[in-house]
Amino acid sequence: QLDPENTGFIGVETFASLVHSHELPLDPTKLDMLVALAQGNDEGQVCYQELVDLISSKRSSSFKRAIANGQRALPRDVLLDETGLGFYKRFVRYVAYEILPCEMDRRWYFYQHRTCPPPVFMAAVTLTQIIVFLCYGARLNKWVLQTYHPEYMKSPLVYHPGHRARAWRFLTYMFMHVGLEQLGFNALLQLMIGVPLEMVHGILRISFLYLAGVLAGSLTVSITDMRAPLVGGSGGVYALCSAHLANVVM
């Protein structure tokens, strides 16, 4: 009766009077959450599906975020319909669609996104890898298959199971690369996947994820091949790809 056109929305004032007149057994805290979600659209409407999710205790993180951020005045149109965007805003929209599976979360991220702090971790790691590669390439006068050069293997950054006592090598090997192909592949994926992930999830979570993948690589080599040296940031790249796979599945 309150939604004759079957839109799935009713006005928040209508809903409030309905709660009062029918004495619906809604927890006051959940009612406040629902009202906060209603303020997330510019028409101030209560969504039926949000009510169902609220009663069944689904999407609790979305409700908590709605309370934490207060009013979220977002257009109800699909984000892809947004026109006249500059280069940076188009990139933010691309990141939203690449990383976030829910349209509401995409719009919330797009309109609430701030450039501070910038995604500096993946950019800094990639830049350091390129600088280290150029330095060793110029020093050894060798740009491919550098691991075959005896001086290269003497580097304090390369990991080898025989050097397990030097704990820093479990991570520093990620700055060394065999050649241009390995460096280019890793750098490309780090920037294409790592930067969008870092923009959404933040530097702490992504740095922990990346370094955990690097550490897993050196630990695996330690127990599978005691003779093999290890170089490259592929372990971290695989961790980023696996994290992105979760977004693809969702």
From TrEMBL:
<dbReference type="InterPro" id="IPR022764">
    <property type="entry name" value="Peptidase_S54_rhomboid_dom"/>
</dbReference>
<dbReference type="InterPro" id="IPR011992">
    <property type="entry name" value="EF-hand-dom_pair"/>
</dbReference>
<keyword id="KW-0812">Transmembrane</keyword>
<dbReference type="Pfam" id="PF01694">
    <property type="entry name" value="Rhomboid"/>
</dbReference>
<comment type="similarity">
    <text>Belongs to the peptidase S54 family.</text>
</comment>
<dbReference type="InterPro" id="IPR017213">
    <property type="entry name" value="Peptidase_S54_rhomboid_met"/>
</dbReference>
<dbReference type="InterPro" id="IPR035952">
    <property type="entry name" value="Rhomboid-like_sf"/>
</dbReference>
<keyword id="KW-1133">Transmembrane helix</keyword>
<feature type="transmembrane region" description="Helical">
    <location>
        <begin position="120"/>
        <end position="138"/>
    </location>
</feature>
<dbReference type="GO" id="GO:0016020">
    <property type="term" value="C:membrane"/>
</dbReference>
<feature type="transmembrane region" description="Helical">
    <location>
        <begin position="170"/>
        <end position="193"/>
    </location>
</feature>
<dbReference type="InterPro" id="IPR051739">
    <property type="entry name" value="Rhomboid_IM_Serine_Proteases"/>
</dbReference>
<feature type="transmembrane region" description="Helical">
    <location>
        <begin position="199"/>
        <end position="221"/>
    </location>
</feature>
<feature type="domain" description="Peptidase S54 rhomboid">
    <location>
        <begin position="166"/>
        <end position="248"/>
    </location>
</feature>
<protein>
    <recommendedName>
        <fullName>rhomboid protease</fullName>
        <ecNumber>3.4.21.105</ecNumber>
    </recommendedName>
</protein>
<keyword id="KW-0472">Membrane</keyword>
<dbReference type="GO" id="GO:0004252">
    <property type="term" value="F:serine-type endopeptidase activity"/>
</dbReference>
